[in-house]
Amino acid sequence: MESQRGKPNTASSYSKFNNAHIKVMLFCLIIGVFSLLPSIVYYNGVFLFRDDFIQQQVPFILETKRMLLGDIPFWSWNTFLGDNFIGSYAFYTIGSPFVWLILPLKEQLIPLGITLSILLKFMISGLTSYLYLRLFVKKDANINRRLTR
Protein backbone atom coordinates (compact mmCIF):
# COMPACT_ATOMS: atom_id res chain seq x y z
CA MET A 1 0.00 0.00 0.00
CA GLU A 2 1.22 3.47 -0.81
CA SER A 3 0.28 6.68 0.92
CA GLN A 4 -0.37 9.92 -0.97
CA ARG A 5 3.22 11.06 -0.44
CA GLY A 6 4.63 7.89 -2.00
CA LYS A 7 5.86 6.33 1.22
CA PRO A 8 4.61 2.85 2.09
CA ASN A 9 2.04 2.60 4.87
CA THR A 10 3.91 0.55 7.45
CA ALA A 11 3.85 0.48 11.21
CA SER A 12 7.33 2.02 11.35
CA SER A 13 6.24 5.02 9.27
CA TYR A 14 3.67 5.90 11.93
CA SER A 15 5.80 5.23 14.98
CA LYS A 16 6.89 8.87 15.33
CA PHE A 17 4.76 10.84 17.76
CA ASN A 18 3.57 14.07 16.14
CA ASN A 19 0.96 16.81 16.51
CA ALA A 20 -1.78 14.68 14.94
CA HIS A 21 -1.31 12.05 17.65
CA ILE A 22 -1.55 14.65 20.38
CA LYS A 23 -4.65 16.18 18.81
CA VAL A 24 -6.34 12.78 18.54
CA MET A 25 -5.58 12.05 22.20
CA LEU A 26 -6.86 15.47 23.32
CA PHE A 27 -9.99 15.06 21.20
CA CYS A 28 -10.66 11.67 22.83
CA LEU A 29 -10.00 13.16 26.28
CA ILE A 30 -12.54 15.90 25.61
CA ILE A 31 -15.11 13.34 24.42
CA GLY A 32 -14.42 11.23 27.53
CA VAL A 33 -14.76 14.18 29.90
CA PHE A 34 -18.00 15.35 28.31
CA SER A 35 -19.49 11.85 28.29
CA LEU A 36 -18.65 11.30 31.97
CA LEU A 37 -19.18 14.92 33.05
CA PRO A 38 -22.74 14.63 34.44
CA SER A 39 -21.73 11.79 36.74
CA ILE A 40 -18.38 13.35 37.65
CA VAL A 41 -20.02 16.65 38.65
CA TYR A 42 -22.86 14.99 40.55
CA TYR A 43 -20.53 12.70 42.54
CA ASN A 44 -17.76 15.26 43.23
CA GLY A 45 -15.14 14.07 40.78
CA VAL A 46 -15.82 10.34 40.98
CA PHE A 47 -17.39 8.54 38.05
CA LEU A 48 -20.47 6.54 39.08
CA PHE A 49 -19.72 2.83 39.00
CA ARG A 50 -22.48 0.27 38.69
CA ASP A 51 -23.16 -3.44 38.77
CA ASP A 52 -20.12 -5.71 38.39
CA PHE A 53 -17.69 -2.84 38.71
CA ILE A 54 -18.76 -2.04 42.27
CA GLN A 55 -19.23 -5.68 43.28
CA GLN A 56 -16.05 -7.08 41.73
CA GLN A 57 -13.51 -4.70 40.22
CA VAL A 58 -13.21 -2.10 42.99
CA PRO A 59 -13.02 -4.65 45.84
CA PHE A 60 -10.50 -6.71 43.87
CA ILE A 61 -8.32 -3.62 43.33
CA LEU A 62 -8.44 -2.92 47.07
CA GLU A 63 -7.69 -6.56 47.88
CA THR A 64 -4.77 -6.59 45.43
CA LYS A 65 -3.32 -3.58 47.20
CA ARG A 66 -3.85 -5.24 50.59
CA MET A 67 -2.26 -8.50 49.44
CA LEU A 68 0.83 -6.79 48.04
CA LEU A 69 1.32 -4.83 51.28
CA GLY A 70 0.14 -7.54 53.69
CA ASP A 71 1.76 -10.31 55.71
CA ILE A 72 1.10 -13.11 53.24
CA PRO A 73 1.66 -11.34 49.91
CA PHE A 74 0.34 -13.96 47.50
CA TRP A 75 -2.55 -15.45 49.49
CA SER A 76 -5.92 -13.94 50.33
CA TRP A 77 -8.31 -15.25 52.97
CA ASN A 78 -10.82 -12.60 51.85
CA THR A 79 -11.26 -14.05 48.37
CA PHE A 80 -13.60 -17.00 48.01
CA LEU A 81 -12.65 -19.46 50.79
CA GLY A 82 -9.01 -18.44 50.56
CA ASP A 83 -7.22 -18.27 47.24
CA ASN A 84 -3.88 -17.50 45.69
CA PHE A 85 -3.16 -14.09 44.19
CA ILE A 86 -2.34 -15.12 40.63
CA GLY A 87 -5.16 -17.63 40.24
CA SER A 88 -7.92 -15.37 41.46
CA TYR A 89 -6.71 -11.95 40.27
CA ALA A 90 -5.13 -12.66 36.88
CA PHE A 91 -8.31 -11.64 35.09
CA TYR A 92 -9.24 -8.67 37.26
CA THR A 93 -6.08 -6.84 38.25
CA ILE A 94 -2.75 -8.41 37.34
CA GLY A 95 -3.06 -8.05 33.56
CA SER A 96 -4.26 -4.45 33.48
CA PRO A 97 -1.62 -1.72 33.40
CA PHE A 98 -4.31 0.75 34.46
CA VAL A 99 -4.78 -1.08 37.76
CA TRP A 100 -1.04 -0.95 38.44
CA LEU A 101 -1.17 2.84 37.96
CA ILE A 102 -3.95 3.08 40.58
CA LEU A 103 -2.38 0.84 43.25
CA PRO A 104 0.07 3.43 44.69
CA LEU A 105 -2.85 5.73 45.59
CA LYS A 106 -4.36 5.85 49.06
CA GLU A 107 -7.57 3.84 49.47
CA GLN A 108 -9.81 6.90 49.54
CA LEU A 109 -8.28 8.15 46.25
CA ILE A 110 -8.74 4.89 44.33
CA PRO A 111 -12.23 5.83 42.98
CA LEU A 112 -10.76 9.09 41.65
CA GLY A 113 -7.84 7.14 40.20
CA ILE A 114 -10.28 4.81 38.45
CA THR A 115 -12.02 7.83 36.94
CA LEU A 116 -8.70 9.15 35.63
CA SER A 117 -7.76 5.71 34.31
CA ILE A 118 -11.05 5.55 32.37
CA LEU A 119 -10.18 8.88 30.75
CA LEU A 120 -6.68 7.55 29.99
CA LYS A 121 -8.30 4.51 28.35
CA PHE A 122 -10.35 6.86 26.14
CA MET A 123 -7.15 8.59 25.04
CA ILE A 124 -5.14 5.45 24.39
CA SER A 125 -7.95 3.67 22.56
CA GLY A 126 -8.46 6.73 20.33
CA LEU A 127 -4.75 6.94 19.56
CA THR A 128 -4.36 3.24 18.78
CA SER A 129 -7.50 3.32 16.62
CA TYR A 130 -6.11 6.29 14.71
CA LEU A 131 -2.76 4.56 14.19
CA TYR A 132 -4.41 1.32 13.08
CA LEU A 133 -6.74 3.06 10.62
CA ARG A 134 -3.81 5.03 9.18
CA LEU A 135 -2.32 1.72 8.02
CA PHE A 136 -5.24 1.31 5.60
CA VAL A 137 -5.76 4.88 4.40
CA LYS A 138 -4.49 5.35 0.85
CA LYS A 139 -5.03 9.11 0.69
CA ASP A 140 -5.14 11.66 3.43
CA ALA A 141 -8.70 12.27 4.44
CA ASN A 142 -10.03 15.72 5.22
CA ILE A 143 -9.91 14.97 8.97
CA ASN A 144 -6.22 14.09 8.75
CA ARG A 145 -5.39 17.38 6.98
CA ARG A 146 -7.15 19.23 9.78
CA LEU A 147 -5.29 17.28 12.49
CA THR A 148 -1.84 17.86 11.01
CA ARG A 149 -2.17 21.66 10.67
Helix content: 55-70%
| Number of separate strands | 2
Note poorly predicted spans: none
What structural class do the secondary elements suggest?
mainly alpha
Task: Domain count, please report it.
Answer: 1
What's the end-to-end separation, in Å?
Answer: 24 Å
**Fraction in beta strands:** under 5%
Q: Give the ordered list of helices and strands.
A: HHEEHHHH
Largest sheet: 2 strands, antiparallel
The side-by-side strand order for the widest beta sheet comes to: 1-2
The outline comes out as elongated
Radius of gyration, whole Å = 20 Å
The average pLDDT score comes to 80
If you had to describe this structure to a student in words, what would you say it looks like?
The radius of gyration is 20 Å and the shape is elongated. It has 6 helices and 2 strands; from the N terminus they run ααββαααα. The protein has one domain (12-148). It is mostly helical. The relative contact order is 0.18. Strands 1-2 form a two-stranded antiparallel sheet. The chain has helices at residues 19-42, 52-69, 85-94, 97-102, 110-134, 142-148; strands at 75-76, 83-84.
List the helices and strands and how they pair.
Layout: H1 19-42, H2 52-69, E1 75-76, E2 83-84, H3 85-94, H4 97-102, H5 110-134, H6 142-148
Antiparallel strand pairs: 1-2
Helix pairs in contact: 1-5, 2-3
